[in-house]
Model the fold of this input.
Amino acid sequence: MAVIKIMPCLDMKEGRVVKGIHFVDLKEAGDPVENAAFYEKEGADELAMLDIAATVENRKTRLEWVKNVSSVINIPLTVGGGISTLEDIELVLKAGADKVSMNSAAVKNPDLVSQASKIFGKDKITIAIDAKRNKKMSSGFELVVSGGTQPAGRDAIAWAKQCQELGAGVVLPTSMDGDGTQEGYDLEFTRAISDAVDLPVVASGGAGKLEHFYEGVVQGGAKILLAASVFHYRILKIKEVKEYLFGKGLKVNPVRKSSTF
Done:
């Protein structure tokens, strides 16, 4: 049985953590360095930091944010937003990231994924796949790029399969329909992705209560559970989530040595 990992996500804008609903209506959610240190202490297995405005503003990821956050944690850090070249990847990794996440740039230039995988190793390359429902697509899910602002006119599940072939190491699908709602992961979308690839899949978008995390694994097929709102606003603690999953028979990493699992 695979160990299920918990991954808080820092969506970044103007140096602060923000959180929205359906990728809009962003609200302040704290300081990134303070949140990062807090989440590691709480038992997070990994951390994601996404510069959500980088692509829309046509700029690169703020490397100082990466350096500041990576300096206070020891858990793996995945950084995304505005990464569009091999040089970008190298700079972000040197700044302290353990993995990079690409979305729009990978769609625009799929060869970037295969080159990055060969140079840096597939374990360093996460492909984020944002999608929304569209009956015109064969899977029912359309790929969306540029921070959720531009429909790509492509099937999201077919793109996930291609990403695996190109050499991606992890797939991070986010449903725009569920993002920030706290009504649960989009299980249909997550399962469609996990059924299509043999890679670790990160469930993302919509976690609001303990049951949602369990559903993300059992019904969605995810190995990594990403959440933002419930952790940022202290609705749930990471320890609570892990204890719940453990009680349901899933394997998780202990929060600390004194934990019962």
In short: The CA atoms of residues 129 and 185 lie 14 Å apart.
